[in-house]
């Protein structure tokens, strides 16, 4: 079974869309580190917060 998130994926936090599209830095089980442009790196427990896949930002 493939992990739902992989380094390089782009995601959005469903409760904080103002954080912008973030790029997954690492994913170990449900612990996913995402670098968001407006708040920096955040460790997200995807058992509690289902990140939404998004298209990479243009530019």
Percent range of helical residues: under 10%
Unreliable parts = none
Number of strands: 5
The secondary-structure element order is EEEEE
The overall pLDDT, averaged over residues, is 93
Q: What is the radius of gyration computed over CA atoms, rounded to a whole number of angstroms?
A: 10 Å
- By secondary-structure content and strand pairing, the structural class works out as mainly beta
- Treating each run of at least 4 consecutive H or I residues as one helix, how many helices? 0
Strand content: 35-45%
| Number of structurally distinct domains | 1
* Global outline: globular
Strand order of the largest sheet: 4-3-2-1-5
How would a textbook summarize the main sheet?
Answer: 5 strands, antiparallel
Distance between termini?
A: 33 Å
Task: Give a quick precis of the structure.
This protein is an all-beta fold and 59 residues long.
List keywords for this structure.
59 residues, mainly beta, five-stranded antiparallel beta sheet, globular, 0% helix
Explain how this protein is built.
- The protein is mainly beta.
- It has one domain.
- It is built from no helices and 5 strands.
- The chain has strands spanning 10-12, 22-28, 31-36, 40-45, 52-53.
- The protein has a 5-stranded antiparallel β-sheet, with no helix packed on it.
- The termini are far apart.
Write the layout of secondary structure elements.
Elements: E1 10-12, E2 22-28, E3 31-36, E4 40-45, E5 52-53
Antiparallel strand pairs: 1-2, 1-5, 2-3, 3-4
């Amino acid at each position: 079974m493939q992990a739902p998130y992989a380094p390089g994926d782009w995601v959005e936090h469903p409760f904080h869309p103002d954080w912008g599209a973030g790029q997954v830095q690492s994913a170990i089980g449900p612990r996913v580190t995402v670098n968001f442009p407006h708040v920096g790196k955040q460790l997200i427990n995807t058992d509690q917060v289902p990140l939404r896949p998004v298209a990479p930002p243009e530019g």
